[in-house]
Amino acid sequence: MEDKRLGKPSSVDDDATLVGRARNGDHAALATLLGRYTGRIFLMAMRILGDRADAEDVAQEVSVIAWRRLAELADPAAVRTWLFRVTHRQCLHVLRLRRAHDRIDAVPDLATNNPACDPPRMAESEAAFNALNTALAQLPLPQQRTWLLAEVHGLPHMEIARLSGGTEQAARARLARARVRLAAEMRAWR
């Protein structure tokens, strides 16, 4: 519904109408559309990432992606689902960057004269950490994502299913397969 005098979308416009208007260059329609979902996008990113600054960055990046790529959306009525999938992908990107950064930071600084530092124990921990990273990298990407969401971020199966676009049963099965493979790979570290 449109206010004929002002030419702006009214608050009762559905998502598909707003997408259509935004595609035609109506910045107010895009702002209204993003306004509907930015809070939920932020909360989703916050649940996955556990860091406010990263969640804010992801929400901002999703807004930019929506602005740039809204014309590529096949079904304008599915914009909500599309925005949440974009959010999920951006969160996974942040998690991958963190993991790469953590690998670099995990190498202990053995040059310090810290008496609490136990070099043999530190070396063993580093080797176990590297073995886990190697084992994770060998998992298929869906199993890897599911394992990270469950084990690192503590998300329940239902939430993992919602984020990955599958069923709760599929999320459980992927997690079980990932755990079996990781247990086999990490047997030497028990």
Automatic annotation (TrEMBL):
Domain spans labelled RNA polymerase sigma-70 region: 36-99
Keywords: DNA-binding, Sigma factor, Transcription, Transcription regulation
InterPro entries reported for this sequence: RNA_pol_sigma-70-like, RNA_pol_sigma-70_dom, RNA_pol_sigma70_r2, RNA_pol_sigma70_r4_t2, RNA_pol_sigma_r2, RNA_pol_sigma_r3/r4-like, WH-like_DNA-bd_sf
Record bears the keyword Protease: no
Residue ranges constituting the RNA polymerase sigma factor 70 region 4 type domain according to the UniProt record: 131-182
Similarity annotation: Belongs to the sigma-70 factor family. ECF subfamily.
Name of the protein in its database record: Sigma-70 family RNA polymerase sigma factor
